[in-house]
Request: fold
Amino acid sequence: MPSTLIEVRRPYHRSDEVAIIDAVHDALVVAFQIPAGDKHVRLVSHEPHRFSHSPGLAQPELYTLVTVDCFSGRSLQAKRNLYREIVNRLETLGIPPDHVTILVRDSPMQNWGIRGGQAACDVELGFNVDV
Reply:
């Protein structure tokens, strides 16, 4: 059950925001093999002056930062798959691949309180994090 934050440097129409959220979530479903209904994704639109970017971007207003907090256990290959899936899906929405940064922060399951305040390590998740 990754918790994902997408940060952008411009406002989007509601339907575009939903498409961005769905693109990132769908990438997580494919790469991390989470259940499709396990959707914990937020999108925050910043004023451009409050969100810096790498110099040299052709369209700095399209810079997008995706931060994924997840349980430890995903392999390097699963993370590579996630990076590829995210940039490919966002590219179909007009966001250039070189304008996307992805940060995966994985932490032990005992550091997550879920399902009524239980430690995630004490809960049967219904999916495997060792992918």
The mean pLDDT is 96. The first strand starts at residue 3 and ends at 8. The chain has two helices and six strands.
